[in-house]
Write a structure and sequence with these properties.
Elements: E1 9-15, E2 24-30, E3 38-48, H1 50-57, E4 74-82, E5 94-98, E6 111-115, E7 119-121, H2 135-148, E8 155-159, H3 164-175, E9 179-184, H4 186-195, E10 200-203, H5 208-218, E11 223-228, H6 233-238, E12 242-251, E13 264-269, H7 275-285, E14 294-299, H8 303-309, E15 317-321
Parallel strand pairs: 8-9, 8-11, 9-10, 11-12, 12-13, 14-15
Antiparallel strand pairs: 1-2, 3-4, 3-6, 3-15, 4-5, 5-7
Helix pairs in contact: 2-3
Organism: Micromonospora tarensis
Subcellular location: Cytoplasm
Pfam families: ADH_N, ADH_zinc_N
Length: about 325
């Protein structure tokens, strides 16, 4: 089914070469055609993540992509066309997308065609205007929690808890019945994770001896696992708070990677976008109000500024508004 009022061309932010933020330019491109297993989305907003910078640099280019490339694996909007083999989604549905494979371009555009398996209806509890910033980091946080295999009542330390993935992981962990110690960045980060329900909120920029003392006071028997969104010496020290045999989970891309050591199990994880994970994520989100904290919003015409902002410190996520 297709919305018959579609224009022939759309505004998009695209790149003809790889490099810095300056290679992204606005231009008019044809609206992509929809295959039998795809949906066409009128994009409202698109998340801006470090993976977009890698794509811009030519380091992480989606399979099948050809220049000019429209970045943007994360987005949200309204379905305006659906292929003949698509089930569960229909024209008019409000959806979010985490499209790891998108040879027809991403969500830095007024329209995006993606395989329906990468899309899900926006769940109750998520502010529609922020849904485009959520998908990849939320799915990655869910994969991280899966990798830890914790039980309700266990203690989890989230390192980097006020970042894009971290602040979503705090909320998903609470929904799984975990006790969360959130190590965040700065006073604004601590305030955010406290508001999101962490039992203990600590500033990772503070004195590590004091931080460890607070952790041991809260969990005298040790924390069962650490979910790490960053590596380095601070993480190495935090592992001192683990129980014997405790787990450190880290997303691929964290540098330096946590090293194996006696009494510590290290597991890497990656987010995965598929119908099962999207359904699980939605079920967890709909258990209560869910915050996608947007640090700053940019119109599509300011996409270069958004990519420059990626290189600075901020709490939560960055978002492009398209519609």
């Amino acid at each position: 089914m297709v919305d018959r009022d579609l224009p022939e061309r759309m505004q998009a932010a695209a790149l003809d070469e790889f490099g810095g933020p300056e290679v992204i330019t606005l231009r008019k491109l044809p609206i992509p055609q929809v295959a039998d297993d795809e949906v066409l989305i009128k994009v409202w907003s698109a998340g801006v993540g470090v993976w977009d910078a890698y794509e811009r640099q030519g380091v992480l280019v989606p399979e099948g992509s050809a220049l000019p490339i429209v970045p943007g694996s994360d987005g949200a909007g309204t379905v305006v066309a659906a292929g003949s083999k698509v089930t569960g989604l229909a024209v008019g549905d409000l959806v979010y997308v985490s499209a790891t494979t998108r040879p027809k371009g991403g969500c830095y555009a007024e329209y995006a065609a993606v395989q329906a398996q990468y899309a899900a209806k926006v769940p109750d509890g998520v502010a529609v205007e922020h849904a485009g910033a959520m998908p990849t980091d939320a799915l990655t946080a869910l994969a991280g929690l899966d990798a830890l295999s914790l039980a309700a009542g266990d203690w989890l330390l989230i390192f980097g808890a006020s970042g894009g993935q971290g602040h979503l992981a705090v909320q998903l962990a609470k929904r799984q019945g975990l006790n969360v110690i959130a190590v965040a960045s700065g006073a604004d980060g601590v305030a955010l994770v406290t508001r999101l329900g962490a039992e203990i909120s600590l500033d990772g920029h503070g004195d590590l001896t004091d931080v460890l003392a607070r952790i041991r006071e809260a969990a005298p028997n040790g924390v069962n696992a650490i979910l790490a969104m960053a590596g380095g010496q601070t993480l190495d020290r935090l592992t001192e708070a683990l129980v014997d045999g405790g787990v450190v989970g880290f997303a691929h891309g964290v540098r330096p990677e946590p090293g194996e050591r006696p009494g510590v199990v290290v597991r890497a994880y990656d987010g995965e976008s598929n119908p099962r994970q999207l359904q699980r994520l939605n079920e967890l989100i709909e258990a209560g109000p869910f915050v996608v904290h947007v640090a700053e919003t940019f119109p599509l015409g300011k996409v270069r500024e958004a990519h420059q902002r990626l290189e600075t410190s901020y709490v939560g996520k960055l978002l492009l508004t398209v519609a």
